[in-house]
Amino acid sequence: MSFSGDPVTEMPIPYRDISRNHFSYRRHKKQKDEDISICECKFDFGDPDSACGERCLNVIKNTECTPGFCPCDDNCKNQKYQKCDYAKTKLVKCEGRGWGLVALEEIKEGQFIIEYCGEVISWKEAKRRAQTYETHGVKDAYIISLNASEAIDATKKGSLASVSSSVDFPFSIRFIWS
Ligand SMILES: [Zn+2]
Ligand SMILES: [Zn+2]
Asked: How many A from CA of 136 to the centre of ligand 2?
């Protein structure tokens, strides 16, 4: 599987695999220093879970540690989203259920699988696109709500997470929006 931006073949519509959200109508907001959440973990060689594991304040708050700010530095295990540290998965066609993502490795409880990526657009644009997709008979449209004013459209550009309508990992969703 590739996250390099190669077009994925045999998809329902022309589709580009991206590993980061695309911002076509506004700039990506940069996190301000005062908004960065710093945990109180101390790395201990004898205890691998000490570097931002289950007890980390950021993990408990569903927030990733910010590279360069975590007291555990490179030992931090809570930067998977920012480092694109995805689980090994493969996209497969499931009979009668559209596209699905299957695991190519054992997934542990709480493990980060993949990020739902697409184009970040305004709700107004999302409504306009939804109508256009309907008019053109696009059945596999993937627009999800991001917040009160924005949505993510992964219909034409997205990560494999977004085209897998039947993900085979029950209860596997953890939301990290930024
Ligand atoms: Zn921590
Ligand atoms: Zn950390």
From this structure: 46
Same domain, 91 and 155: yes
Q: Of 161, 166, 143, which Cα lies nearest the Cα of 8?
A: 161
CA of 65 to the centre of ligand 2 (A): 5
How many domains in the chain? 2
69, part of any domain: yes
What is the SS3 string spanning 34-66?
A: HHCCCCCCCCECCEHHHCCCCCCHHHHCCCCCC
**CATH number of the CATH domain containing 105:** 2.170.270.10
Q: pLDDT for 3-31, tens place per residue?
A: 444 444 455 556 677 777 787 777 777 77
The token duo for 47 is 């205890």
Determine the structural domain holding residue 52 and report its residue range: 37-83
pTM above 0.90, yes or no: no
Instruction: Give phi and psi for 127, each to the nearest 5.
Output: -65, -40
